[in-house]
Each structure stands twice: as C-alpha cells, then as structure tokens.
Write a structure and sequence with these properties.
Layout lengths: L10 H11 L5 H15 L5
C-alpha cells in the first residue's frame, strides 16, 4: 500500500513491521516479498 502506509508511520517503521512479519518465512520467500516478484514479473535487470 505504498505510499498510503507511510501516512500512519515513517518508512523505517513500516519496513520494520514488514520484516518482522515475514521473518518466519524462508530467505527465498522473504526475497520474493521484498522485491523479487517485481523483478521477475517485469523482467528487470538489477
């Protein structure tokens, strides 16, 4: 919900909430949530 979620909290706080929420997932699952899905979908070269 970017940038809507930063209405209630600062970017750093939102990032901490998300990383805490997904901490029980595997590193691969975390990577997909944190950006790999977008990289794959849009065929980005990073």
């Amino acid at each position: 919900d970017w940038p809507v979620c930063t209405v209630a909290a600062k970017y750093e706080q939102v990032l901490e909430i998300v990383t805490n929420f997904i901490s029980s997932l595997s590193p691969a699952e975390q990577a997909h949530i944190m950006g790999q899905n977008a990289i794959d979908f849009y065929n980005l070269e990073v």
